[in-house]
Amino acid sequence: xxxxxxxxxxxxxxxxxxxxxxxxxxxxxxxxxxxxxxxxxxxxxxxxxxxxxxxxxxxxxxxxxxxxxxxxxxxxxxxxxxxxxxxxxxxxxxxxxxxxxxxxxxxxxxxxxxxxxxxxxxxxxxxxxxxxxxxxxxxxxxxxxxxxxxxxxxxxxxxxxxxxxxxxxxxxxxxxxxxxxxxxxxxx
Length: 188
Fold this sequence. Notes:
The chain has one helix at 2-25; strands at residues 43-53, 68-77, 83-93, 99-107, 110-120, 135-148, 154-163, 168-178.
């Protein structure tokens, strides 16, 4: 009889331990933590660019497919406080075929500058004889600093570009720009 009681007590205690463990591992509505989605730092920035390959100083014509050079054109950023302006960049083509460059955009109330890396998306043969110089690129850009409204600005984002002739380009930048907090000075 003692053995049956001990066996019954052992089974009961195992059942209690199992139930307690199951309850402890199950989420409870009253103690369930809610996760807030964190917003990325900075203000959303979207810009559209249209620019052309510039004629080198020691030349009289534009060379399609140049491996180094400069672009210049326009930029339009509908983000509040940014607006439209001029854009210029310099680039080189690295061994992998990527465009690596430095850029700057000038607006009415300041400028922003940084660097970029664009990878060609078209690696196959041209689709026709008239599209030999057509290309598309995807990559990233970094905001390193600025002047005026964008003094000490930082940021990152993605960039997509297309060209039909390797001379005229259209691009879209999408990312975030972080501006330092405004400081106030006490008059004393």
